[in-house]
Amino acid sequence: LHAMFTLEHLTDPILNYAKDCYLPFVFSNSIDMTWIAFFEAKDGVLLHIYLLGPVFTDANTIFKKDSVLNKYNLSPLIKRNFMRVIHNLPLIGITQLMQYAIMMHYCITREKICTSDFHYMESSAVNFDDNKFSSLLEAEVTDRRNSYLYEQRYLKMVEDGNIQYLAERSGSTF
């Protein structure tokens, strides 16, 4: 998994973000592995960066990862070993992941936040070795945000006791 950080230069957007802000930072790579970065600072000085992840937040992207990995020139052995590792990564809904993130941020900083306080990596922030991944990442980020909005609407219907949630659920998947 360290290879993904190196290959896709994922440390750069995290470090650039941490220059200005210490709120949780949600980011993904080209195969939709998602992490959340947390920052521990004292007197405005960054002490530690913690990561939650990687996880997958959408079951549909798990099926795409093999075709995306084919774009990298990986040996069959490395690709097989990498696929074995990522097949064991958890699939966690975005709402549940955000709740874990709120708890982790509180444990690190003793600061209460809500999901609207999170910041998300812009797709242009990732410096890919292969520029073909840019459009793929943008489409996946859009899909994930749409899935999150659907999930929030669905949960609100359940909370409100709106029995139309069953019709809503049958019309979409998350």
What are the secondary-structure elements, in order, as H or E? HHEEEHHHHEHH
Regions with pLDDT < 50 over 5+ consecutive residues? 124-145
Give the overall silhouette.
Answer: flat
Q: Kindly state the percentage of residues in helix.
A: 40-55%
Major sheet: order of its strands? 3-2-1-4
Please tally the β strands and state the result.
4
Give the count of helical stretches.
8
Mean pLDDT: 76
Give the strand content: 5-15%
What's the story with the biggest beta sheet?
A: 4 strands, mixed
Please give the alpha-carbon distance between the first and last residues: 25 Å
User: Rg, please?
Assistant: 17 Å
Oligomer: single chain
Q: Give the class from helix and strand content and strand pairing.
A: alpha+beta
Please specify the SSE layout and strand pairing.
Elements: H1 2-7, H2 11-18, E1 25-28, E2 34-42, E3 45-55, H3 59-62, H4 65-69, H5 76-87, H6 94-109, E4 119-120, H7 133-159, H8 165-171
Parallel strand pairs: 1-4
Antiparallel strand pairs: 1-2, 2-3
Task: Give an overview of the whole structure.
The structure is a single chain. The protein is α+β, with helices and mostly antiparallel strands and 174 residues long. It is built from eight helices and four strands. The protein has helices at 2-7, 11-18, 59-62, 65-69, 76-87, 94-109, 133-159, 165-171; strands at 25-28, 34-42, 45-55, 119-120. The chain has a four-stranded mixed β-sheet with strand order 3-2-1-4, with helices on both faces. The two termini are 25 Å apart. Mean pLDDT is 76; it is low at 124-145.
